[in-house]
Amino acid sequence: MLLGLLLIVIILLSLSIHEFAHAWVANLFGDPTAKNEGRMSLNPLKHWDSVGTTLLVGLLALQAIGLTSLPAFGWGKPVPVNEGNFENPRLHGLQTALAGPMSNFFVAMILALIVRTIHLPELASSAIILAIYINIFLMFFNLLPIPPLDGSRVLRLFMSEQTYYSMAGSPFFLFGAIFVIIYFLSEPLVQATNYLTALLIGG
C-alpha cells in the first residue's frame, strides 16, 4: 500500500517536471503561452488532465489495494504551445517537444548520482531507484516517433505540416498508436528501461 502511494507521488512529480520543461523551453524560445496560463510550474495539479491523469492515478490506486491487475496507463495535461511565436517553428518546436523526455533523463541521472554516492536507508534507496526507473521509462515512451508523442516531432521534419497534424489529431491514429505500444512495444520499452536504470545505478 505504501509503495503504491509512493509510486503515485513519484509519477505525478515526474509528469510535472516533464510538462514544466516543455513550458520553460517554449518560453525560452519566445512563446510565453504556457507561462501565462500558469503551466510553467512543478505543481502536479497544474498539469492534471481530467481524463489521462485521473485514469492513471485511479488504476495505480486500484493496483495498490489489489483490485486490478490492469496495466496503468495515462498522461499529463499537454502544455499549450503557440509555435507562431518561435523564430524557427519547426526547430524550436522540436526542441520544445524533446525538452520533456530530456528533463526526465536529467532527473534520473541526478537521482542515480545520489544513490551511487550517498548511503541511504533501504526504503529511501528503493524509492529513488523506483523514481529513476519511472523517469527513464517516461523518456523512452515519449521519444517514440508516434504522434502525438514528443518523439513524433522528428517525423515532422520530413513531412508536410498538413500531414503531420492530420495524423496527430486523428483519434483513429491515436488509438492505433496505443494498441501498437501496448501489444508490440511494451516489452522492448521495459527491457530498455531496465538496462539503462541498471547502468545508471551501477547494477
User: What is the overall pLDDT average?
Assistant: 87
Shape: globular
What Rg do the Cα atoms give? 17 Å
The count of domains is 1
Number of helices: 8
Percent range of helical residues: 55-70%
Q: Main beta sheet, described?
A: none
Q: What does this 3D model show about the protein?
A:
The protein is built from 8 helices and no strands. With 203 residues, the protein is mainly α. It has one domain (2-201). Helix 1 (2-28) packs antiparallel against helix 3 (52-64) and helix 1 (2-28) crosses helix 4. It is globular, with a radius of gyration of 17 Å. The two termini are 26 Å apart. The relative contact order is 0.12. The model has no long low-confidence stretch (mean pLDDT 87).
Blueprint (SSEs and pairs):
Blueprint: H1 2-28, H2 33-36, H3 52-64, H4 89-117, H5 122-142, H6 153-156, H7 161-168, H8 171-201
Helix pairs in contact: 1-3, 1-4, 1-5, 4-5, 5-8
Top keywords for this entry?
single chain; 203 residues; mainly alpha; 8 helices; 0% strand
In short:
This protein has 203 residues and is mainly alpha-helical. The chain has helices at 2-28, 33-36, 52-64, 89-117, 122-142, 153-156, 161-168, 171-201. α1 (2-28) packs antiparallel against α3 and α4 runs antiparallel to α5.
